[in-house]
Amino acid sequence: MVDPALAEAARITPIYRLAWLTARTMGAFYFGWRVLHSERVPRIGSVILASNHVSFGDPALVGGTLPRAINYIGRENLFAIPVFGWLIRQLKAVPVNRDGGGGAGLKAILDRLIAGGGIILFPEGTRTPDGSLLPAKPGIGLTIIKSDAPVVPVRIFGLFEAWGRHRRFPRPGRITIKFGQPMDFSTLRTEAKTCSKARLKGIYQQAADEIMAAIARLEPCEDVCKFG
Prior knowledge:
By secondary structure, the chain is of the alpha/beta class. It contains nine helices and seven strands, in the order H-H-E-E-H-E-H-E-H-E-H-E-H-E-H-H.
């Protein structure tokens, strides 16, 4: 029997559905997307999606490939904007400070995961300036270690050319979104419970580096496409 709380956390609400359908329509008809192995993402329950970051459109397009709701992060000052702040809350955005973390931001993210939600995070911390992968920052490692959620690497191909930092508006172009196999961080999570403070910082960076390496290993291919 499905836990009602987990099902509710993954439920697509009416406003979220409208944005979700918009993202799917744009992905399919404007970008001609291929979505590979979206079945690797659990349909309910907590999950961290760790993706490369090439465009403003990354969160919506990755979330649009999945038949479940995914939480996003947004700078906390955006939530104070009338109407817009209400809207992004309906879209399951999580407020974080300007640096993208902080205790309150981490707690908000972990609360969503504990409740059985999914969240998309970007290990690089910022959009790539040239399309290449950037080194991972330790912040995602902290989130991974503090949670019990499975971690699924995601890589987006082609969207930098279509809507990178050098483009104000997106242009048509073929993109691929590929999901990797879920990763197990149980060994590092166990070690983190008893290790020294110095080693703990190393564990956070190690987890971040491992997920970034998994993203780097994902390559576009011609296998069967999965559209959610």
